[in-house]
């Protein structure tokens, strides 16, 4: 049985794979030889794709038949690049992109790990402490303890899971909520523009027609507003018009994007302008994400501090009540 990854490779593994393929192809190896070399790609599927290349199958068919380990968003870039003979260059750009994505994910993970652990520790301790009575001692109840923990954690887990599921499915309500969150909203807006600019720039650099590049970049960006704007620009292009003069009408592109796109369109440096925009928006998105990793852990710490304060106040009140009872007796 041929092993196939059921999910796309991680950004770090994709970066290694793409950079390796770029170097091998630039050195003169055939695609089949490059695919047969040891790499993070599942070996069985890589050998199957190599056999297709040796049989003379077009790159579009080879990429399309790759397993789910190859992200769908990367496939249009590879197909367009192979058709124009720029596959090594596009692979190198994709390698840099995925390396950056992997680095950002690691930073977010490690920044969130400690405050999440503290919050969950507080959620486990608080119901236990509430069972301590100064007069009667520990009033342990397993169902009560479980219910107390669930009362704290289930709303948090359930809300996060619901928001994540709706966002993955592209539900407008989830996107609206995320866009309103401090720091997260700014991150999402800049990340969408970074993804769109990168996709459009890479597709044009790979030699794809401009109409097709706009349409596929809109799909890759995962933004309903950008997708609609990209479809509108595609219609203008099919009518023989330059999209630069119509960008402001879409009301989704910032002034900087419009200005730099028009400059690149006029000077013949559109690909470089778009990749520069992608890098700038990615840097801003990373800055917003860094701010989020400071803000939301601080909110978690505040929640834990509030729980600790609640515990301390409860202890003091119980102690005072106990003293008052003793004095009354």
Q: What are the salient characteristics of this protein?
A:
Receptor-associated Protein; two-stranded antiparallel ribbon; 1% strand; mainly alpha; 329 residues; 14 helices
Please provide a brief summary of the model.
It contains 14 helices and two strands; from the N terminus they run ααααααββαααααααα. The chain is mainly α and 329 residues long. The longest helix is centred in the last third of the chain and has 59 residues, at 270-328.
Describe, in plain words, how this protein is organized in 3D.
The protein has about 325 residues and is mainly α. The protein has a domain at about 125-329: Receptor-associated Protein, CATH 1.20.81.30. Helix content is about 75%, strand content about 0%. It contains 14 helices and 2 strands, in the order ααααααββαααααααα. The chain has a two-stranded antiparallel sheet. Helix 6 (about 85-130) packs antiparallel against helix 7 (about 140-170). It is elongated, with a radius of gyration of 27 Å. The model has no long low-confidence stretch (mean pLDDT about 85).
- Estimated structural class: mainly alpha
Order of helices and strands: HHHHHHEEHHHHHHHH
**Termini separation (Å)?**
80 Å
For the sheet with most strands, the description reads: 2 strands, antiparallel
Our estimate of the beta-strand percent is under 5%
Within CATH, the superfamily of the domain at 123-329 carries the name Type II secretion system (T2SS), domain F
Give the beta-strand count: 2
Q: Uncertain segments of ≥5 residues (pLDDT<50)?
A: none
Helix content: over 70%
Instruction: Count every helix, treating DSSP H or I runs of 4 or more residues as helices.
Output: 14
CATH class of the domain at 123-329: Mainly Alpha
Placed side by side, the strands forming the largest sheet appear as 1-2
Instruction: Please compute the radius of gyration using only Cα atoms.
Output: 27 Å
CATH architecture level-2 label of the domain at 123-329: Up-down Bundle
CATH topology of the domain at 123-329: Receptor-associated Protein
Task: Tell me, rounded to a whole number, the average pLDDT.
Answer: 85
